[in-house]
């Protein structure tokens, strides 16, 4: 990784961490397609490692607002989805993974933009957890379905619950990927280099998360994600 690439990725990662810390989603949607352009072999491991401190800090910051029952049902579905996602990852080449990341980015963003509102139910939570387990284990992307499930909940509930579900799910995915021999030294080193940017973005989000225009920023993130996902599909 060149110095220029490292600085560019650090800036992107810091901004993305700030957005997710303030709004509740956005990190993987922004960073995954860019990693796909840079080197798809870093997906999903580097992305999953980077999200561990980010989601821990967000969940801890607003821990009193976590929907614990919903988190339990989502985690139940997420566990089984992880194994399906591992199968997808093993079946794809690097080029196919680029296309998959782009398509899933577009699909997840479009669903989050267009789906009608609905109330979280246990069956919906299990279904979202299952889908998230597949997509996040295979590509590192899983935010929009969770955000969609809680899109009408208060901001603290959305941010803390989504972060908690991410944190648990990412640990599950990384353990499965480690057992399968899919975690390499370069992926881990890249994450370690970029973690300071994650921490800076997350800390800065603490000063604005209660005031920022969440719906407007969320819309901008999703539109950006559709454009970047489409570009990644064309590259693949």
The shape, in one word, is: globular
Order of helices and strands: HHHHHHHHHH
Q: Work out the count of structural domains.
A: 1
Number of helices: 10
Arithmetic mean of pLDDT: 86
How does the major sheet shape up?
Answer: none
Q: How helix-rich are the residues, as a percent range?
A: over 70%
What is the strand content?
under 5%
- pLDDT < 50 runs, ≥5 residues: none
Termini gap: 21 Å
- Write down how many β-strands occur, each being a DSSP E stretch of 2 or more residues: 0
Whole-number radius of gyration? 16 Å
Please give the structural blueprint.
Layout: H1 3-23, H2 27-39, H3 45-61, H4 68-91, H5 94-114, H6 122-139, H7 143-149, H8 155-179, H9 185-205, H10 214-235
Model description:
This protein is mainly α and 236 residues long. Helices cover 80% and strands 0% of the residues. The protein has one domain (3-235). It has 10 helices and no strands. 51% of the residues are buried.
Features:
236 residues; mainly alpha
At a glance:
This protein is mainly α. The protein contains ten helices and no strands.
């Amino acid at each position: 990784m060149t110095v220029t690439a490292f600085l560019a990725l650090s800036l992107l990662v810091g901004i993305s961490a700030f957005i997710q810390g303030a709004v509740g989603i956005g990190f993987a949607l922004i960073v995954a397609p860019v990693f796909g352009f840079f080197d798809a072999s870093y997906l999903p491991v580097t992305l999953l490692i980077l999200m561990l401190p980010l989601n821990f800090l967000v969940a801890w910051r607003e821990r009193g607002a976590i929907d614990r029952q919903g988190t339990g049902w989502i985690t139940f579905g997420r566990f089984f989805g992880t194994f399906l996602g591992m199968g997808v990852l093993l079946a794809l080449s690097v080029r196919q993974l680029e296309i998959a990341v782009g398509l899933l980015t577009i699909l997840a963003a479009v669903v989050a933009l267009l789906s009608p509102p609905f109330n979280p139910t246990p069956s919906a939570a299990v279904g979202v957890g299952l889908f998230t387990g597949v997509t996040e284990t295979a590509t590192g992307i899983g935010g929009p379905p969770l955000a969609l499930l809680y899109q009408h909940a208060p901001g603290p509930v959305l941010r803390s619950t989504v972060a908690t579900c991410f944190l648990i799910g990412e640990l599950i995915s990384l353990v499965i990927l480690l057992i399968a021999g899919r975690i390499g030294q370069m992926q881990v080193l890249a994450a370690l280099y970029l973690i300071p940017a994650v921490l800076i973005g997350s800390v800065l989000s603490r000063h604005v998360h209660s005031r920022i225009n969440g719906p407007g920023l969320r819309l901008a993130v999703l539109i950006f994600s559709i454009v970047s996902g489409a570009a990644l599909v064309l590259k693949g």
